[in-house]
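As a warm-up, study this chain.
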Amino acid sequence: MTEPSATFLLFGATGDLARRMIFPSLYNLLSDGLLPDDFMIVASGRSEMDDAAFRSQVDDALRQFLATDRYDEEVAARFGTMIAYQPVDAGNADQFAALATRIDGRLERGLSVYLSTPPSLFAPTAQGLADAGLITPHTRIAMEKPIGKDLASSKVVNDGIGHLFAEDQIFRVDHYLGKETVQNLLALRFGNVMFEPLWNTTAIDHVQITVGETVGLEGRVSYYDGVGALRDMVQNHILQILSIIAMEPPARMDPTAVRDEKVKVLRSLRPMTDETVKTHSVRGQYTPGAVSGQIVTGYADELGQPSDTETFVALKAYIDNWRWQGVPFYLRTGKRMPARQSEIVIQFKPVRHSIFGRDGHGTGLEPNTLVIRLQPEEYIRLAIMSKRPGLERQVKLDEVTLDVSLTAAFAGQRRRIAYERLILDLLAGDQTLFVRRDEVEAQWTWIDSIIDGWKEANVKPAAYSSGNWGPSSAIALIERDGASWHD
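Now compare it with the structure written out below.
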């Protein structure tokens, strides 16, 4: 499985993700000369239409979602000739047979299947592929989240796919792992000698991970209610970021070594109980307010009925291993936040002994802070102490920032869609940036302990006004420890 797949089969091709992300990503890969020769895209949906009609829809999507300077009519025309549309409904053997006819003669050159469908269709779709003879040692399959709603259901989904595909053929997608700045965490930690010796409980006081969204339900009513922020964001995106921050150095940069270290971290997360959820977790749900100067309604108003689904969650997590013993990881994510913001904050401990005044009082001495911003800007900032200019006999210190803007540093490089990296790796068979089954199950094991604790302790979402960083109890969660959120 070393040669890139020559055929890309997309289920859910008429959906929003395909229009916004997948087709623009494939177009960009073609434009940059990164797709294999004689590449073919087979798009599948439930709607009946011919190739020409679907190609027109794709062209409309490219014009809408590509950056203005990226759309080129000649490239778009060539891209359109690569696309064939085949209607397929899960469970319809005749339609799968027709699909196999469209792909006939190409299987030996590799087939990458992408499931951008509800998880309930994963196993039936895979079975339809098997019955049509489309699963060979050269077939790979990628699945969008969610992989289940808890540990038990994730095993059902994984069993359904694992029955037909070997683990090295399965690519579980978490699009955060396709972001340049998330991948840059590996480079920051393991490509620079000054950080790794300090990356442990001896030097680090605590870690914060924040993923804030300004949007509300945004048309996801049927999916989001009953799922909530914990399952939707923490179980996948935030825990994947945490695992990269906290992992031991892998022996090499390959899929097995990297994912072995990540899963060790996830298995070391301290489970929560009905007692610890009261002090180590906060649930919230947004009410009417203002975001970016715009008046917005509350979650229950958007939903049309009351609900106990949380749109915000803050957690205090511990990793019970040698490196991180006693270091709290504060995690928070929510909708209708004041800003769209994803960042990691590494808060270092104070210097052990201050020579600047008695115990450092009055000198402005502050612990160092490393801020890694993932979006919307991409930067790395390290706050250090420097002497304030002046002739005072007593040294006065001020905090200054070493600021590396990744956007500015690589100004000549186009900012890529995360799915470009993931699709390219799928075609090549590189699983490093995809999630392994044992990772998914370790994530769900910890998440299930929180959900069970909430149920047993009857923890309900607290209200917070849209445009705020969650309920006041989220502030208390971290300030009880003498720290504060980096807003």
